[in-house]
Amino acid sequence: MTSWRDQCESAHETNILHIEDNAADSELLRHLLSDFPELNVSSLSDGAEALGYLRRQMQSVDAVRPDLILLDLNLPGLDGRRILMELRKDPLLRLIPVVVLSGSALEEDMMLAYELGANAYVVKPHELKRFRTVMRAICDFWCGAAAVPGRATR
């Protein structure tokens, strides 16, 4: 079986939006995904700003529609739960895959995320090697294997 990296050698760029308020977690994710030059990772730390970006409002008029959203649940202000609700209500955004990437392993957080329309829930691993493996698995599946409406198959 070929890896996502092999599949994407001639493919177009894949856009990932990472919504995370912890700057260290955001930087770590960028570092882990830097092995994949085909990935264009944008990071936002504020839920309201993220919705504005996705809806191409105000300064986000030139925003790129992501192929995948990696979403932290526990954001200040407009949190990840509310972002999920808003995304799933919006006919232009509701089909974008959303992977909740959270430090919470609470069953109620997982259940609510799925009820609100998350495509997957991943608890952030504490070990760097495991985090790298998890991120590669997410990219292999969502950016390589999964067929998503509105995105050309590769």
Structural class: alpha/beta
Question: Roughly what is the average pLDDT, rounded to an integer?
Answer: 85
Number of helices: 6
N-to-C CA distance: 15 Å
The top-level CATH class is Alpha Beta
List the quaternary state of the chains.
single chain
Shape: globular
Q: Into how many domains do the coordinates divide?
A: 1
- CATH topology (fold) name: Rossmann fold
Overall CATH architecture: 3-Layer(aba) Sandwich
Quote the beta fraction: 15-25%
Low-pLDDT stretches: 1-10
Q: Going across the major beta sheet, what is the strand order? A: 2-1-3-4-5
Radius of gyration equals 15 Å
- Tell me the helix content: 25-40%
Could you walk me through the main structural features you see in this protein, from its secondary elements to its overall organization?
The structure is a single chain. By secondary structure, the protein is of the alpha/beta class. The chain has one domain: 3-Layer(aba) Sandwich (Rossmann fold). It contains six helices and five strands. Strands 2-1-3-4-5 form a five-stranded parallel β-sheet, with helices on both faces. Helix 3 runs parallel beside helix 4. The N terminus is likely disordered.
Helices, strands, pairings?
Layout: H1 4-7, E1 14-19, H2 23-33, E2 39-44, H3 47-54, E3 68-71, H4 80-89, E4 98-102, H5 107-115, E5 120-123, H6 128-145
Parallel strand pairs: 1-2, 1-3, 3-4, 4-5
Helix pairs in contact: 3-4
Produce a short descriptive summary:
With 154 residues, this protein is of the alpha/beta class. The protein has helices at 4-7, 23-33, 47-54, 80-89, 107-115, 128-145, and strands at residues 14-19, 39-44, 68-71, 98-102, 120-123.
